[in-house]
Fold:
Amino acid sequence: MTSAAAEGVAKTSATPSAPRGRKSVTGTRRTVAALFLLPALVLLGALVVYPIGYSIVRSFYDSSGGHFAGIDNYRALFTDDGIRTALKNNIIWVVFAPAVATALGLIFAVLTERVRWGTAFKLVVFMPMAISMLAAGIIFRLVYDQDPDKGVANAVWVGVHDTFAQSSAFPKAHPGRNSPLKPDHGGFLTTSPVHTGQSVALPLVGVAPEQMPDSAEKAVRAAAEPGKITGTTWQDFTRGKGVGKLGAVDPSELGYSGMRIEAVKDGKVVATAKAADDGTFTLPAKADGALLRLPAGNFKEPYNGVDWLGPSLVTPAIIGAYVWMWAGFAMVLIAAGLAGVPRELLEAARVDGANEWQVFRRVTVPLLAPVLAVVAVTLMINVLKIFDLVFIIAPGSSQDDANVLALELYRKGFSEGRPGVASAIAVFLLVLVIPVMLFNMRRLRREVRR
Structure:
């Protein structure tokens, strides 16, 4: 008994003592973990904590940084017109951009789920994410160009418009010297009435030969016809000094093909005619004693499309560029969430008689609600910091109307030399982003607990 007890005491004394340092859950010593985390903590402090702290301190000083300004810089957030416009535009961005991008991502993810080429379509939609904001801004600056020959948006818009409302081919045509025409409400009217058996000359100038319609042919002097009124309307201009005779049809001059002519009596149109390719036209006998009018529709300026980057449309146009880039991001996340939806629930709904729209609205969307919330909140955080697209796409003439807080921060800090106000805007942006980030973190924690 005594020897056994002695052996037990010896074994106990030989057993190494437990380490004094506490271990983490994974079994790693806290000091070792801290050493590995130290470089990341240093970088985090230098690149995140210090700039935030310095911005908060700097926001209470004036432009020189030598005098304490109190809350004057923060007061400017609500009194400066540029900052108020930027705040209003940021609200528009936060409300519409995430909603549209998320909705499009949901539609793309659902509609491409059952098609064989769905993967290829998703690749094409996601591809803009590989383009930088700078490159996307340059692309859409060209897309929204006012000139239909350069801007794709206006080229399509003008094409659709001209399909239903053809523009005039003679927008700059006007009477020359000693012309029998005078201005009349955007068109032109003869100075004296015309009569049957008369051949009328209606010369105009102002259209370059290369801009004449392709259908235009060499002008011909219309021969007089009994009981009718005939005439010619043409481009009364021949290149070369001293070449051609004013008011007479010369061999190289072209007729105004398609020009509309009206016979007007007592303010009413009694007859109309359309010029042939050689500029000749014929009016019936009832036009006798009438004045001839070339209506304003002949000289209507060609439709030049929509001013996408003008003051009223510049913000929606830039939001469109943003959605083009980020709809693919939303689609990929939603498609991943859709892959985890139990198919049994969808099939059960169909068996119970629900159509596809009801399945989508009452089953698919509720099951995807957590994913949709994460996508929408992530995009909200992103649009609060939007800068590149607005700076690149909006021209100088309408940049004030498209202004956002991040762009105003840049302008106040670098263009206007007011770093105190710029720091106040940065702190204000941080305050706006923090609640959204906290909401997103809480939602993610709830998902993990489930």
